[in-house]
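Let us work through a complete example step by step.
Step 1: write down the sequence.
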Amino acid sequence: MSVLICGSLAFDTITNFPGQFSQQIMPDKVHILNVSFLVPTMRREFGGCAGNIAYNLHLLGGAPLVLAALGNDGAEYLQRLQGWGLDTSQVLVADDTYTAQAIIITDGDNNQITAFHPGAMQLAHQTPVPAGRSDITLAIIAPDGRDAMLGHARQLADAKIPFVFDPGQGLPMFDGDDLRRFTAQASWVAVNDYEGAMLCERMGVSLEALSRQPNLRGVIVTLGADGCEVWQDGQRTHVPGVAAEAVVDPTGCGDAFRGALLHGLSLGWPLQRCVALGNRVGALKIARRGGQNHRIPAELLALA
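Step 2: predict the structure and record it as tokens.
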């Protein structure tokens, strides 16, 4: 059975600033902000939420089906997905634009500043959810073009395919009414603690109240190294984090968590077990650079 992953495919240019952003930015001067960060290291990685989530789900033995868009520079990425044995029939390749590009600066405290060029991602809505495929039993709406996220969520709901709503860094694009539609269509909501606060503020609800929506099987709030909260029917459960062997690069940690979450959900696991695996895979990811360079050891695969 396939898990449909709706989201972005992107190239990440990742740089590291050895200092702290807080020491370079004067809060009382942000209205005339003019700063430059010296970044001694730089590398280019395969990224994007859909690509990173698919990578982790594939490592765990799942069957990801990516619905996304690449630009005229995306042939290498397409070959990479095909090299994993993935069905790429739902990947649009646009000839007149670039693949989405993220330029990321990470400081010594693992804070990040990102510039993002959407490129072909803005065309992702042109590929609809393949509702006629009976093999798709689960999906995720991850950050993507605004029209794509709205359209794909509606199409999944119409097809009665349960999905995780994961607005991520795309959340500011949506107002309260948009978010109420998303959460009314979804089966699960996954956010980090900052996104959770913004989501609740815009919707005018608490996490407790949101989790009581009859269609939602759970609301997951990730807390970084502290693990995550699972809200179900108004009840909160804390699932502890997993200590990483090293903290190297946070890029893609949330996507690693979500790949493991989808793997567990596709197998019918209880939600707490799904997120416990997500915490473990996220800890593996943060110890490696880039979103698609870590591996999952055999002993963890045996548990999954």
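Step 3: interpret the result. The first strand starts at residue 2 and ends at 6.
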